[in-house]
Amino acid sequence: MNFVGGIGRFFVDQARGVAYLAAVIAAALRLSVLPRHWPQTVRNVLARQILFTGVEASRFISLIAVLVGISIVVQVQLLLTRLGQTEMLGPILVAVIIRELGPLLTNFVVIGRSGAAITTELGNMRVNGEIHVLDAQGLDPFTYLVLPRIMGMMISIFCLTIVFIVVAFASGFVSGALMGASTGTPLMFIDSVMGALTPADVFSLLAKTMIPGLVTGAICCTEGISIEGAVTEVPQATTRALVRSVGALFVVSALVSILIYI
Fold first, then answer.
1. Number of structural domains, the chain?
2. What pLDDT, in 10s, does the model give residues 69-84?
3. Which residues form the domain of 71?
């Protein structure tokens, strides 16, 4: 019975954590549509978050996209050319790059780069008492610290995913042309990809970028703010945030694929 009780407590704790996370995301979305919760200070934090998470990461995302374009897009082109199935180029690239690989790799980069930074920053602020100072000055810590970071993560992941997809396709087409793959003209390549794109793919792309962005931002913020006591808890909270964010990413990606394509 103790073993069964331990399993029950585990699932109850997980359910409470998911409910708390959903409440944080719902509160952030509700406040984000109310103009009075976006004063100049909060807009400045949002701009800095997008700059760090989105703009400064665009070069690294582009580099990964170039490598993916060379390694995957070119292989698909060469293989289909040899098999005489070039009409399958668009559907395969849409399924591999747009549906799965683009959102996943972009989320991985953002989680490792910005998720850890958010948790560490908020954890140090918590330990040093800076959050209590904000509260004492009449600034809502949730509005000033959590809201712009969650929304900044969501916006940045979506934009970086678009950058990843465009660069991967462009680099793949150019590399395939240099290697002798029968890719046709750039317009034919674009038409093949766009012709295979369906409304379900667009919805999947939106869901696999925006939902993980919201979840990652909420996890990293709550883990950082929930620290109590010593500075030594900050690395532990950062590790928990990264692990839970990656786990949530795979869960969300799998659920979206099941609901849309199965």
1. 1
2. 888 877 777 777 776 6
3. 2-261
